[in-house]
Amino acid sequence: MGEAVQTLTLERPKLNYRKPARPNYLQLDDPVPLAEDIALETMDLVDVEIWRQNKMWDRFARLRKEDPLHWTPESISGPYWSVTKYKDVMAIDTDHARFSSEAKYGGIVLGPPAKNFEATSFITSDEPVHSIQRKTVQPGVAPDMLQKYEPLIRSRTQKVLDSLPVGVPFDWVDAVSIELTGMMLATLFGFPQARRRQLTRWSDIATNPFDKDVCPGGRDQWQREIGECLNTFSAIFEERKTTEPAPDLMSLLAHGPSTRDLDLQGLLGNVLLLIVGGNDTTRNSMSGGVYALNKFPDQYEKVKADPSLIPNMVSEIIRWQTPLSYMRRTALEDVEMHGKTIKKGDQIAMWYISANRDEDFWEEDPDRLIIDRKQARNQISFGFGIHRCVGNRLAELQLRILWEELLERFEHVEVIDEPNFVPNSFVHGYSWLPVVCHRKN
After folding, report:
1. Is residue 152 part of a domain?
2. Does pTM surpass 0.90?
3. Hey, which residues does 83 pair with through a beta bridge?
4. Is residue 119 a part of any domain in this protein?
5. Pick from 400, 205, 204, 386: which is nearest to 289 by CA?
6. Cβ neighbours of residue 176 under 8 Å, at least 6 residues apart?
């Protein structure tokens, strides 16, 4: 992952472009030490700097080899365990009796919850509440709805791709990934398309409260914007209660027997869950796929030669990218694993991003993108068990259509510089990816 981006040799005009300025508090030239130069007991995987510089891979590799259940005693998120092997992540993700997602214990993100902010949702609930509330929103992304959405997604994708400049640089993240996911989010929520960028903004705020690029005003700005999100959706929620049931997510929540009486914190928690879930997974896989195929040009040539590989390639891109790096659980009792004791109350990070690169599970080099990988469908980016992402099939549909339409139009989408990575250990994503599109002759 640390090597320079490989690109195909194509004739193109000399291009002038400017990388977005970094704020002064980020020191790009500060070296991030190699994993081998760090004392194992001091290794902290939630350090945002290693994510901004994309330097976490050797850390995960070392932990998988030397310390697959790793204790970090001090971090910005407090003490936590790291689980980095595929089989161990699967074991914890399916052990709901001993490992909890409950908001009252800390929910799904490492660290204590924000003060005066205890939003709950079905993903931060254990059984039976989790499954009851999850079933309420499932019809919004059920197979019959995906059939209805497919022509709409394709039409929008075609329009966005047809609007892209050819032969000149632009930011793929903003022009394509955010635009397409914003449109889909607005449709899912029955939200005005003209205001769709509000949804992606609330997703960014929710997942990056301490990122000064996203939230320079700190805690005050974060509270204000989250409050705006709550006020907006409270009004929508009450309005949908007075209208006939519809398949959009807000109508499903408003009419669902288990959700129609949600309090404000429950409403906010479920709205943010659905916004983030619908935004980050698809958005960052849309960017990650372009980046990955430029790093592995032989795979780009392979899919050009055989577009029938696209569905499997989508699964492989999601594995390689892993748009949500981890999920947290909290131990409800003492648990023995790898000769160590996870104590009751300890927080555990299930590192999906590491499980998806586990050398003992993946038969071929897991650091490479291999679009016809036989195991690609075994990627664990969506989680496993009862908490598996409810919208995973919709995400796959959007990505499949994007690549079908891309291959119809462009000989190559060329990455012309290393991207800017999001400084976030939870969301593994991109804030800027400069590309040049080369149209087919």
Report:
1. yes
2. yes
3. 69, 350
4. yes
5. 400
6. 160, 161, 164, 286, 402
